[in-house]
Amino acid sequence: MARTLTEWLQWQETLHPLSIDLGLERVRHVASQLELLAPSFPLISVAGTNGKGSSVAMLQSIYQHAGYTTGVYTSPHLLRYNERIVIDGEEVSDDALCDAFEKINLARGAISLSYFEFATLAAMVLFFETSVDVALLEVGLGGRLDAVNLWDADIALITTIAIDHESWLGNNRNDIAVEKAGIMRANHPVVCGDKQPPSTIASEAKRKGAILFQRGKAFSLSRKSIEKEHWQWFDLKHQTVLTLNNPALRGDFQFDNAANIIMVVQQLQPRLFVSTASINTALQAIPLLGRLQRVAQCPEILVDVAHNPHAAEQLASYLKTHPSSAKTVALFSLLEDKDLVGIISPFEILIDEWHIIPMDSKRAQCVDVIKLSLKQQQIKAPIQVHIDFKSALQALKNTLKCEDRVVAFGSFLVVSSILESL
């Protein structure tokens, strides 16, 4: 019987005993059956703790503006599953996804696949069928054992390395960096954008024979332009400079992401030529959901998927340098395996009211635990717990003034719920 997309996804959630099951053997066997192991198109893999989604979006915009057909695979989605697989700027259709799932299901035999593995294989099935010019793959978790790492990246990008997903990746940056470094390949370039990378990034690159381009050593950026609307990117080895318009994204950290992806683009120039003009234009037109995204004006509502301390610090930095003219209100929740104290600490003096909302997830942190933690941190701002997102938004609608600001963060689920409610 033919399944709808919703039926396929519900079935996939029950097929495999574990929601996260790192390892490549099962997915390798199925990919081999589907003849997906040798793509003809160049492939860029993006790993890191934060900045992966923004980096992929920038790369997508650049290659599309240069005239190439892009295949983009990211996770998780915010509103629709189809967001995970985008070809030439368009989300793939339900029918295309169902057809891909049917092929994967026939090829897997008795092999059990996780929800994420089905998605990864579906992306590659569709990229092969469409004959994309370049595939951009966001690593889901870690790198070494993530399903995306089944394919050899022509160039790998590691954005930042911070503490997150300790249960799977380790509880220190050196161990986590080893997992991220799993996407490196011998004799292939890898760009690392972390400003203070763990020593294991360089040692793993040397061990694997990868060609490492490290931020600060191989390339850098400067925002000290004579004209404030410009910034400069430097190739330190070849002494070349690109002068570019400021990217159309909020947050200083987006300049770091832009610098990283420009280095990636430079390494693929012999195969996929991109002009400086295309880069400049593309950075002004980046499709990006949930990253310091303004979804309302009066009052201003910002949504951000910050869900670990490093991302929280970046969000807090933006709020500090772009203060509201009135009060700033937080709509907040997170998953129970996240560093609650580390995430809320940067906002101690930046938030005037905390509004805590329960999330519809088995992994959601209890709202009472969040409230208690805020009080234990000696947060002086008022704290209010709501029964759901809809009631929280209604309460805010009744009390906020036009000049106030709402910041919704803590989880992808927070952002998706706000977008759906609005």
What can you tell me about this protein's structure?
The chain has 422 residues and is of the alpha/beta class. It folds into two domains: 5-282, UDP-N-acetylmuramoyl-L-alanine:D-glutamate ligase (3-Layer(aba) Sandwich); 293-421, Mur ligase, C-terminal domain (Protein-Tyrosine Phosphatase, Chain A), CATH 3.90.190.20. The chain contains 15 helices and 17 strands. The strands form three sheets. An eight-stranded mixed beta sheet has the order 4-3-2-5-1-6-7-8, sandwiched between helices. A six-stranded mixed beta sheet has the order 12-13-17-14-15-16, sandwiched between helices. A hairpin with a 2-residue loop joins strand 3 (85-87) and strand 4 (90-91). Helix 3 (52-65) packs across helix 9 and helix 4 packs across helix 5 (115-130). The longest helix is centred in the first third of the chain and has 16 residues, at 115-130. 46% of the residues are buried.
